[in-house]
Specification:
Elements lengths: L1 E5 L8 H11 L3 E5 L11 H14 L2 E10 L6 H21 L3 E5 L10 H20 L3 E5 L9 H11 L4 E6 H7 L5 H7 L3 E6 L1 E4 L8 E6 L2 E8 L9 H9 L5 E4 L7 H16 L3
Length: 283
C-alpha cells in the first residue's frame, strides 16, 4: 500500500504548491481535489498537461480525482442528465492527466431513512455513469459517507448489487463509517473486498462540547450527534485493523490522507503521514 495526499488538505494553495509540498513531505501520490484552484471538469488541456508534467517531474502518481458529482437519488432527471454530462467532461480531463479513477456520489438521504426508490434511482443513473466510463477505460468510486445511501456496509452492498458494473466500486472511509456506526475494520474489508477501489484516512471523535474547534453535527440513528475532526490517532477511529485486513486481501492501492482537524494544513499533512507510516510498520 502507498500513501497519497488528498489535495483538499491544501485547498487554499495552488495545485503546484500542493504537489511540491506533498513530494517534499514524502507522499508517493496525490488525489486531486476536484474543485478550483486544483482541477475541475472545465480545466483546459494545457492546464491538465502542466499538472501531469509536474507530477512526472516530482515522481508523484495521480491517483484520481475527488470530484463532487452525483447525488442522483434526490435529483430530477434533468439534473441527473446534467451530472452525467459533467462527468463526461471530467473523463477528457482525466485522459490528459493520465488517471483512471473519479469519485461519484449516489446521494442521500441516510440509509436508515432511504426508501427503495432512492436506491432504484441512484442505481439507474450510476449504471449509465458506469457504461459511459467504460468507453473511456475509467473507474468510478462511491465514497462510503455518512448521510448517504451507502453510509453502511449493508447500504453499499445493496447499491453495488443493483448497479452491477465491474468499473463501479467504493472509497472506504473509516472516519465516515465511525460516524455512522458501521464496521470499518475486518468485517468491512471481508464483505466489500475487491470493490474497495480507494481508501480515505481521517480521524473523528464523538464529543459533547460544541465549542471545541472542528466540531460538527451529523444525523445518525442515535439522533443529531456531535463530532470533532481529529488528527489521526487522536480520535475514535482505529485504522490498524483496517490496514491489516487490506493487506490480507492484497489491496495494493493508495491510502489518501484527508485530515480536517483544526490545525494548519502543513501540520496536518505531515503528522497524518507519519501516523500512517507508523501504523503500516505494525501490519
Amino acid at each position: 500500500m502507498k500513501i497519497a495526499m488528498f489535495t483538499l488538505i491544501f485547498r487554499n494553495r495552488s495545485i503546484q504548491q500542493a504537489m511540491r509540498l506533498s513530494r517534499k513531505l514524502g507522499y508517493e501520490g496525490i488525489e486531486l481535489w476536484g474543485m478550483e484552484p486544483h482541477i475541475s471538469a472545465n480545466s483546459t488541456q494545457e492546464r491538465a498537461e502542466e499538472i501531469r508534467e509536474l507530477a512526472d517531474e516530482l515522481k508523484l502518481d495521480i491517483v484520481g480525482i475527488g470530484a463532487y458529482l452525483g447525488g442522483f437519488s434526490t435529483k430530477s432527471d434533468v439534473e441527473c442528465e446534467s451530472q452525467l454530462e459533467e462527468l463526461e467532461k471530467y473523463f477528457t480531463v482525466m485522459d490528459w492527466l493520465g488517471c483512471d479513477l473519479i469519485r461519484v456520489g449516489p446521494g442521500g438521504p441516510n440509509a436508515f431513512l432511504a426508501q427503495d426508490y432512492h436506491y432504484a434511482k441512484a442505481a439507474h443513473w450510476l449504471r449509465k455513469c458506469g457504461d459511459l466510463a467504460s468507453d473511456y477505460n475509467v473507474r468510478l468510486a462511491m465514497e462510503i459517507h455518512n448521510a448517504s445511501l451507502i453510509e453502511t456496509i449493508d447500504g453499499a452492498e445493496r447499491l453495488l448489487e443493483m448497479i452491477n458494473r465491474e468499473n463501479v466500486g467504493l472509497i472506504h472511509d473509516a472516519g465516515n463509517m465511525y460516524i455512522t456506526g458501521t464496521d470499518f475494520g475486518e468485517e468491512s474489508v471481508r464483505r466489500l473486498g475487491e470493490k474497495i477501489f480507494h481508501v480515505h484516512v481521517k480521524d473523528e471523535l464523538r464529543i459533547d462540547d460544541e465549542s471545541l474547534p472542528g466540531s460538527f453535527r451529523n444525523l445518525t440513528q442515535k439522533g443529531n450527534e456531535l463530532f470533532q475532526q481529529q488528527m489521526l490517532g487522536k480520535g475514535g477511529v482505529d485504522h490498524l485493523p483496517l490496514f491489516k485486513s487490506l493487506k490480507k486481501i492484497g489491496y495494493s492501492g493508495y491510502l489518501s490522507t484527508e485530515c480536517h482537524a483544526a490545525k494548519p494544513d502543513l501540520y496536518r499533512a505531515e503528522q497524518d503521514l507519519k501516523e500512517i507510516q507508523r501504523l503500516l510498520t505494525l501490519i
